[in-house]
Specification:
It is a single chain. The protein is an all-alpha fold. It is rod-shaped, with a radius of gyration of 40 Å. The relative contact order is 0.04.
């Protein structure tokens, strides 16, 4: 009823609805969904690589600690052996 009254007042023909705004909204939503999916994939890959890196670093540190422990034990055996020989050398 109101649309008929509006046509009587302004008999200009109605313009067809423009499709460009709707296309832009749909395209933007599609690009946003693709971007979000890529972000999630990238975030998961990054998290996995960080886990691998942390594991590698932990392994490296443990290996270094084991080597240092072995060296200390090796040096300790040598020093203990020399100290045990010293009193024997001092006695005539």
């Amino acid at each position: 009823m109101l649309s008929q009254a509006a046509e009587r007042i302004d008999p200009m023909p109605r313009r067809p609805a423009r499709r460009w705004p709707m296309v832009a909204i749909v395209a933007g939503a599609a690009m946003g969904a693709i971007g979000f999916a890529l972000y999630r994939k990238s975030a998961q890959e990054w998290a996995e690589s960080m886990k691998d890196t942390a594991h590698d670093a932990t392994t490296w540190v443990n290996e270094k600690a084991d080597r240092a422990k072995e060296r200390a034990q090796h040096l300790g055996h040598h020093e203990t052996g020399h100290k045990a020989d010293e009193p024997a050398r001092k006695t005539p």
